[in-house]
């Protein structure tokens, strides 16, 4: 085991698959010579050459369209959007072609789209978004949102193996901040299986991505109150592990759903609706949601702090739920 | 001012032989053109009989362009034909009964009733199913070419689009990536002069769509899209150039859409004289005359071909009619692929 940052774990997973399978290639803006905007692919072009680490023109539709074509012709493309926000330029391709091709034409489209997402460093409205719920809504796409270095590597390898278009949301705020032991060998982490980040008996928090750590800090404060919080890290939002969520809710009978994306129609709404449908009688309190407000991501630090759910927001929500 | 090269018409049998076609090939092209038109004519009848749900689209007038390009493709080449390109499906061997089944939303259509009209393809025959967002398939074809280039295979992708689709960003992005990387792809613009009711001067400001090719770093060629042999010769040149590492070419096949955008559209906005002028250049009639004058196609040859086509279409219709409707119980199956779905020749 080596201690790797979240970013190094993603690089490690990608390098592992590229060494193992020469069908895997990386395409994106500045991924080659520059090593990617966040340096995930630093040194890759030297190792794999310019035809497996491809510097693309600034053309997101061409990048993803090319991934679909290459995938159908037997390759296993991995595309990088420089920022998840720019996937809007290629929304049409993902939703119109890639997502529907298997169902309507019988042709599988196995590619991975890496999406550096999330805020916390004054990236402003166009470099901070968490668009996973928009894509979780589209039948045919899978959405993966790892929180830990170990999951980042294992889920990336699973995503590359998967026969579908998989959107891999890597949270920028975790890139260099989070460091943990990661197995050196190749392994996969199953898509669709949640992970219990912290066991607890009194309250359940369901979350994913960077919010796992916000929930963890909040839960530590609740421990001081004698309230035991269970944190379910969903790991993938499409498919999502409903069984794990229901199991935890049936144990604790109180649920708080936490995400960094905006409120209305965020993926939390789906979780809340499903729990209300299937575990209503197990609940001892109304379900709570803590999310970003329904507005674009702001630039200035005090505004961004007000936008992204903070530890104190979660503590407040958990205490209210505990006292109900 | 035009920038693209204007293709020469193919006149003599010698030129055709130089392009690699013998008598049998030439008659085969004629037969495929007849099947192409026949499938769509029968489709019209099915539509009027109320057997085709939704609308119905044809490529009447585009038979030379679609069959000409498809004939020039190699067996391992791939393409993304659109709704005016029935000839590509026919030339690459799709059985007409499956097309009729597709039209009628039946279980045996290539999409099993999940998608309609020409939104279909047989991937085993090297085709990828189109979507309604027409230029969306150009970057996909470019991606096929990218795979061939990465693996250093001598294969070519052919990407179809219309002059209306040329206005969209996908076209620009796809050609930019293909041009910068010199990928083995041939872009084919079916310029039938009307994007629904919009004429060409409201879609692009150059004289030809093919004039744009120069700005992407490759050659553009304007071809009379009613001349199947001229289309074939230019497509062959472009495909073989791409195959040998020479990069993309943009071929623009100029035709007239001889019917409305779809069956519900009477095309009142197209000047009548335009239809009359282009009807004189009907691609099938034009080729038939050429065959009789240059290859000695006799009445007997013609009878044999037309009788065979008629029988094929009749049998196909009957078989398609017998196909069951899809089972709603299967509606949500296959939204996500399984590893077994990758067990195809093209995914390997």
Distance between the termini of chain A: 44 Å
Q: What is the N-to-C order of secondary-structure elements of chain B (H for helix, E for strand)?
A: EHHHEHHHEHEEEHEHEHHH
Q: Calculate Rg of chain B over CA atoms.
A: 20 Å
Strand content of chain B: 5-15%
Q: Would you count the extended β strands of chain B for me?
A: 8
The largest inter-chain interface, given as chain pair and residues per side, is: A-B, 44 and 51 residues
Approximately how much beta-strand content do the residues of chain A carry? Answer: 15-25%
Named CATH topology of the largest domain in chain A:
Rossmann fold
Order of strands across the main sheet of chain B: 1-7-8-4-3-2
Which regions of chain A are unreliable across 5 or more consecutive residues at pLDDT < 50? none
Based on CA inertia axes, which overall geometry of chain B fits?
Answer: globular
Q: What name does the CATH topology of the domain at 5-21 and 57-96 and 118-298 in chain B carry?
A: Rossmann fold
**Helix/strand class of chain A:** alpha/beta
Output the number of helix runs of chain A.
Answer: 12
CATH superfamily of the largest domain in chain A: Thiamin diphosphate (ThDP)-binding fold, Pyr/PP domains
Domain unit count of chain A: 2
Q: Sketch the major β-sheet of chain B.
A: 6 strands, parallel
Summarize the amount of helix of chain B as a percent range.
Answer: 40-55%
Topology of this structure?
The complex is a heterodimer of chains A (324) and B (348).
Chain A: E1 2-5, H1 6-20, E2 24-28, H2 44-48, E3 53-55, H3 60-72, E4 76-80, H4 91-98, H5 101-105, E5 111-117, H6 132-136, E6 142-144, H7 149-161, E7 165-171, E8 179-182, E9 195-198, E10 203-207, H8 211-224, E11 229-233, E12 236-238, H9 242-252, E13 255-262, H10 267-278, E14 288-292, H11 301-307, H12 311-323
Helix pairs in contact in A: 1-7, 3-4, 8-12, 9-10
Chain B: E1 5-6, H1 13-18, H2 23-48, H3 63-72, E2 78-80, H4 86-91, H5 96-103, H6 137-150, E3 157-162, H7 169-181, E4 185-191, E5 194-195, E6 198-199, H8 213-216, E7 219-224, H9 228-243, E8 249-254, H10 272-279, H11 283-294, H12 299-322
Parallel strand pairs in B: 1-7, 2-3, 3-4, 4-8, 7-8
Antiparallel strand pairs in B: 5-6
Helix pairs in contact in B: 2-3, 2-11, 2-12, 3-9, 5-12, 6-7
């Amino acid at each position: 085991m080596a201690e790797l940052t979240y970013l190094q774990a993603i690089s490690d997973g990608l390098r592992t698959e590229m060494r193992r399978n020469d069908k895997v290639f990386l395409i994106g803006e500045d991924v080659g010579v520059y090593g990617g905007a966040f340096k995930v692919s630093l040194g890759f072009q030297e190792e794999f050459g310019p035809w497996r680490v491809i510097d693309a023109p600034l053309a997101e539709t061409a990048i993803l369209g090319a991934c679909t074509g290459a995938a159908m012709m037997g390759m296993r493309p991995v595309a990088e959007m420089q920022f998840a926000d720019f996937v809007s330029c290629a929304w049409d391709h993902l939703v119109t072609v890639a997502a529907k091709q298997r169902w309507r034409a019988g042709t599988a489209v196995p590619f991975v789209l890496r999406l550096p997402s999330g805020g916390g460093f004054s990236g402003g409205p166009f470099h901070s978004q968490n668009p996973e719920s928009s894509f979780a809504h589209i039948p045919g796409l899978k959405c993966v949102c790892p929180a830990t270095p170990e999951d980042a590597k294992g889920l990336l390898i699973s995503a590359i193996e998967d026969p579908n278009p998989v959107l891999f949301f890597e949270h920028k705020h975790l890139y260099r901040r989070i460091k943990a032991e990661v197995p050196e060998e190749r392994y996969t982490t199953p898509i669709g299986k949640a992970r219990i980040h912290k066991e607890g008996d009194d309250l359940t928090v369901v979350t994913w991505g960077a919010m796992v750590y916000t929930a963890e800090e909040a839960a530590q404060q609740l421990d001081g109150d004698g309230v035991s919080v269970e944190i379910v890290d969903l790991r993938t939002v499409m498919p999502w592990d409903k069984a794990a969520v229901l199991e935890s809710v049936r144990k604790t009978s109180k649920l708080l759903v936490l995400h960094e994306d905006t409120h209305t129609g965020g993926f939390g709404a789906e979780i809340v609706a499903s729990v209300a449908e299937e575990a209503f009688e197990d609940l001892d309190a109304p379900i709570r949601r803590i999310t970003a407000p329904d507005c674009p991501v702001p630039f200035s630090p005090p505004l961004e702090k007000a936008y992204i759910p903070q530890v104190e927001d979660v503590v407040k929500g958990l205490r209210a739920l505990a006292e109900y | 001012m035009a920038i693209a090269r204007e293709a020469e018409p193919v006149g003599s049998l010698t030129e055709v032989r130089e392009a690699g076609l013998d008598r049998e090939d030439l008659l085969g092209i004629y037969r495929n053109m007849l099947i192409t038109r026949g499938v769509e004519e029968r489709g019209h009848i099915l539509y009027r009989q109320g057997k085709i749900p939704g609308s119905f689209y044809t490529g009447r007038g585009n038979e030379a362009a679609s069959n000409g390009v498809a004939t020039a493709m190699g067996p391992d080449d791939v393409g993304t034909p659109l709704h005016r390109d029935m000839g590509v499906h026919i030339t690459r061997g799709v059985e007409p009964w499956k097309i009729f089944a597709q039209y009628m939303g039946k279980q045996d259509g290539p999409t099993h009733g999940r998608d309609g009209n020409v939104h279909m393809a047989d991937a085993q025959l090297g085709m990828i199913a189109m979507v309604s967002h027409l230029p969306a398939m150009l970057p996909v074809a470019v991606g096929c070419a990218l795979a061939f280039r990465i693996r250093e295979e001598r294969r070519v992708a052919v990407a179809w689009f219309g002059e209306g689709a040329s206005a969209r960003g996908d076209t620009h992005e796809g050609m930019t990536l293909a041009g910068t990387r010199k990928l083995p792809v041939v872009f084919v613009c079916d310029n039938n002069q009307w994007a629904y009711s919009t004429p060409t001067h409201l879609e692009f400001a150059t004289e030809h769509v093919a004039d744009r090719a120069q700005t992407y770093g490759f050659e553009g060629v304007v071809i009379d899209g009613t001349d199947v042999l001229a289309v074939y010769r230019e497509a062959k040149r472009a495909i073989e150039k791409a195959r040998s590492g020479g990069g993309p070419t943009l071929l623009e096949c100029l035709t007239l859409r001889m019917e409305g955008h779809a069956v519900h559209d009477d095309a009142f906005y197209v000047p009548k004289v335009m239809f009359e002028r282009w009807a004189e250049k009907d691609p099938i009639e034009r080729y038939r005359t050429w065959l009789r004058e240059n290859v000695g196609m006799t009445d007997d040859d013609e009878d044999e071909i037309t009788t065979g086509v008629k029988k094929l279409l009749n049998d196909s219709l009957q078989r398609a009619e017998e196909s069951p409707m899809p089972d709603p119980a299967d509606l949500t199956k296959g939204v996500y692929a399984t590893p077994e779905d990758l067990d195809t020749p093209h995914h390997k």
